[in-house]
Design brief:
- The complex is a heterodimer of chains A (282) and B (113).
- Chain A has 2 domains: 3-139, Oxidized Rhodanese, domain 1; 143-265, Rhodanese-like domain (Oxidized Rhodanese, domain 1, 3-Layer(aba) Sandwich).
- Helices cover 32% and strands 14% of the residues of chain A.
- Chain A is built from 12 helices and 10 strands.
- Chain A has a 5-stranded parallel β-sheet with strand order 1-5-4-2-3. Chain A has a 5-stranded parallel β-sheet with strand order 6-10-9-7-8.
- Chain A starts with a helix and ends in a 17-residue tail after the last helix.
- Chain B is mainly beta and 113 residues long.
- Chain B has a single domain (8-112), classed as Immunoglobulins (Immunoglobulin-like, Sandwich).
- Chain B contains 1 helix and 7 strands; from the N terminus they run αβββββββ.
- Chain B has a 4-stranded antiparallel β-sheet with strand order 3-2-5-6, with no helix packed on it.
- Classes of the chains: A alpha/beta (282), B mainly beta (113).
- The A-B interface holds A 28-30, 32, 47-48, 85-87, 89-90, 114, 117-118, 120, 165-167, 172-173, 175-185, 197, 199-200, 204-205, 234-235, 237-238, 263 and B 1, 8-9, 11-20, 26, 28-30, 33-34, 51, 53, 55-56, 58, 60, 62-68, 76-80, 87, 89-91.
């Protein structure tokens, strides 16, 4: 993968709004964002309602994902262009999710909703209707998804990348600072995880930094390219953003996203936790 | 969308989208414990700026959170006591402010030009 195959610019997007075979998909947790105005023709995916199992903590299964994409009028051969708010966190999560279920051609809109708005590009309130399809998903590609036992085994052995803010890493905050801080689980980070906040990979307008800047960022942070890598955050969406940078833009091998992330790890009984600004020992 | 009756447990299970910035503080927010940084983004003439992106940066200047202002230009963060920088991005320009926050509600205004 590379920047050219994984990302599209806002200019490209604006020129291809009605191109057959290109489907724009807005992915948000805040459903009012789409209702308040979205890119013309874009269909909507709700991070919580559409992509999470309503009972268990897990993803929708293969058949549910097929039904979801079929109902949205997305075909297996379509080029899916994802974008959203929160600096594309949930769009990156959806990108990873589409890859997990084997979609062929999926791209992220560089800068997402923020750059689009700051550029004052047009938005519409017209809800897009697409004829239903018969979408076929693959089995989950678990080469890009880490589970808790993978993470515990990776301590001191693989690259663990904590992409939350420095204060969350150190245990001074329990959640991103736009959310109330009361939470049940312990604060801190997985021992030996290096801290590379997702935001270091993005410019203020939400676009990704250059390949040279990104390469330097992770090299300076101490990622060992000879080892496998697991990225995590609090619920797995910011780490999707970093997974996207490492595997899809920089083309690194064997990168997994730990979607359980800190809300799972920080609630596990008996696992080691490190506090403070240093990675800590295995 | 955050509702006033939201419990701590449902907060923990929620995702990362910013709650409605115009909503009253949820009843579950404990101001004895929380450090709320809130205010309004204004244009040079004093008009509130809706849809501005406000970023909270920590004492080292690193990104900590970002919200989009309400129709009345309001923003709100849940931080910790200490010094924080705020930076607003909008179609009308950008602006910066610094706040030394204490527990409870810390109010400020942020002008973009």
């Amino acid at each position: 993968m590379s920047r050219e195959s994984a990302l599209v610019s806002a200019d490209w997007a604006e020129k291809n709004l009605t191109t057959p075979g290109v489907v724009f998909v807005e992915v948000d947790e805040d459903t009012t964002a789409y209702e308040g105005g979205h890119i013309a023709g874009a269909v909507r995916l709700d991070w919580r309602q559409d992509l999470q199992d309503p009972i268990r903590r897990d993803f929708v299964n293969r058949e549910q994902f097929e039904a979801l994409l079929s109902s949205r009028g997305i075909g297996n051969d379509d080029t899916v262009v994802l974008y959203g708010g929160n600096n594309n966190w949930f769009a990156a999560y959806a990108y990873w999710y589409f890859k997990l279920y084997g979609h062929g051609d999926v791209k992220l809109l560089d800068g997402g909703r923020k750059k689009w708005e700051l550029d004052a590009r047009p938005l519409t309130k017209d809800v897009a209707e697409r004829p239903a399809t018969t979408y076929k998903a693959q089995e989950q590609d678990l080469s890009i998804r880490a589970f808790r036992d993978d993470v515990v085994k990776a301590i001191g052995v693989q690259n663990l990348v904590d992409v939350r803010s420095p204060d969350e890493y150190a245990g001074r905050l329990l959640a991103p600072a736009h959310l109330p801080q009361e939470q049940a689980q312990r604060a801190g980070h997985i021992p030996t995880a290096i801290s590379v906040p997702w935001s270091k990979a993005a410019n203020e307008d939400g676009t990704f930094k250059s390949d040279a800047e990104l390469t330097e960022l992770y090299a300076a942070a101490g990622i060992d390219d000879s080892l496998d890598t697991i990225a995590y955050c609090r619920i797995g969406e910011r780490s999707s953003h970093t997974w996207f940078v490492l595997q899809e833009i920089l083309g690194k091998k064997n990168v997994k996203n730990y979607d359980g992330s800190w809300t799972e790890y920080g609630s596990l009984v008996g696992v080691p936790v490190a506090l403070g600004d240093e990675p800590g020992k295995a | 969308m955050t509702t006033p009756t939201q419990t701590a447990a449902s907060t923990a299970a929620a995702g990362c989208a910013a709650p409605d910035q115009a909503a009253p503080l949820p009843l579950s927010v404990d101001l004895e414990k929380e450090t709320v940084i809130t205010g309004v983004v204004q244009a040079a003439g004093g008009d509130p700026v809706a849809g501005a992106y406000v970023r909270l940066l920590d004492r080292s200047g690193e990104f900590t959170a970002e919200v989009v202002t309400s129709p009345a230009g309001q923003f709100r963060f849940f931080a910790a006591p200490g010094t924080w920088q705020l930076r607003a991005l909008s179609r009308f320009g950008n602006g910066d402010a610094t706040v030394t926050a204490e527990r409870g509600v810390n109010q400020l205004s942020l002008t973009v030009a």
